[in-house]
């Protein structure tokens, strides 16, 4: 388990969202791919942002209420997404997951998006390999 890298569990078959994409199309892409969010990239696959289901829900509710038409992803995306390296150890990523942390991480190599890794993929791998993660040692513990 320690030697397993993000590149071993990432998904690289999902097409990222491009700037200027209408939000209704973003929602269709999220639902089709069964993911809670996707990176937003430029024409060179540089990650510019991240859009989540929650971003879409809020924006579509507001635009529907005000009859503003279909917003675009640029209006709602988070512009400082957390990205990870394909070389990062899965166990390190798993130990950093928690409440308030992203559910989907863009995987970037040499500044370009090469895939995504989801909590679901991490959970699946942990379940497949068993209990290979060492429990953390607590300060002051007699054990």
UniProtKB/TrEMBL annotation:
PROSITE patterns given in the database record: CBS
Q: What is the official name of this protein in its record?
A: CBS domain protein
Q: Which Gene3D superfamilies match?
A: CBS-domain
SMART domains associated with the record: CBS
Keywords of this protein's UniProt record, alphabetized? CBS domain
Question: Superkingdom of the source?
Answer: Bacteria
Q: CDD domains recorded for this chain?
A: CBS_pair_bac
Q: List the Pfam families.
A: CBS (PF00571)
| Limits of the CBS domain | 10-68, 77-135
Is the keyword Ribosomal protein in the record?
no
